[in-house]
Fold:
Amino acid sequence: MAAPRAFLHLGTREWNGRARHIHSMSELVTPDSNREKKKRTLLQFLSDHFQDIQTLREYLLQKQISKVNQENRSFTNIQERYGPYVAGALFVLKQGGAVKFQDQEWIRPNDRGHFLAEFQKFQKVPVEAVDASGCAINYQGLSNLLPLKELRSLSLQRCPNLDDWCLGRLYLLAGSLQELSLAGCPRISERGLACLHHLQNLRRLDISDLPAVSHPGLTQILVEEMLPHCEVLGADWAQSLKLEPAEQLPDTSSPLSS
Structure:
C-alpha cells in the first residue's frame, strides 16, 4: 500500500505545480482584459447617462442665463427712491464698470467689487460718462442707462451680450451722447450699426474689431456717410479692405476707359 500513497503524493505536487503555472499565465492576461472591461464599462456608463449629461448641460445653461438676467434687472425701486442718476450709477458699478458724475472724479469698484456709497449724495448730479467695458449688459439692462439724458460718453466695448437689438434703443440718448465705443462686441453686425443714424450728435465712434460684421471696410465707409460729423474709428478695417477684381476701378490708360 506504500506505492499508491507515494504516487498520490507525487500527483498532488504535480497538479499543484500546473495550477500555479496556469494561475501565473492568467495574471499575464488579466491587465488587458481589465482595460477592455473598464473601457466597456465607461462606454456603457456614458451611453446610459447621456440623457443625464444633456440635462445637466441644459441646467447649467439656464442657470447662467438666469444669472445674467438677475444682473440686468431693473433698479426701479432705487430709481424711485434716489432718482435715475444714482440708480444708473449703481447698476453700472454692480456690473463692474465705472461712472463719472458731472464735475466729479471717476467712481470705480475695487478688486473685490466694493465701492464707496458716497455717490448716493449725487441724486441731482447728472452722470456724464459710463465705462461699462466687458460688462454683462444686455437688452434688459440698458433700461437702467437710458434715463441718463445728460450722458455724453458711453463705452460698451467687449460686452458679450450686446447685440443689434440693443443698439436700436440708443436713440433715446441721441440728445446728449457724443462718444460711443462698441469695439470688440462679438454680436454686433451691420444691421445694428445702421440704427446709429439717430445719434447725430456723436463726435467719436469706435466700431473696430466687430467679428459679426461681414464687410468691415465698406461698413465703415457707410457709417461715416451716415454720421458726417463723427470721427469713426476702425482704421484696421480700412487697411484690410480689398476690392474684388470685378469691383476694381477701370484702368484710365486703357482706350476702353474713355
User: Anything to note?
Assistant: Residues 2-48 form the longest helix (47 residues). The helical segments are 2-48, 50-71, 76-82, 84-94, 164-167, 190-193, 216-226, 235-240. The radius of gyration is 35 Å. Residues 153 and 209 are 20 Å apart (CA to CA).
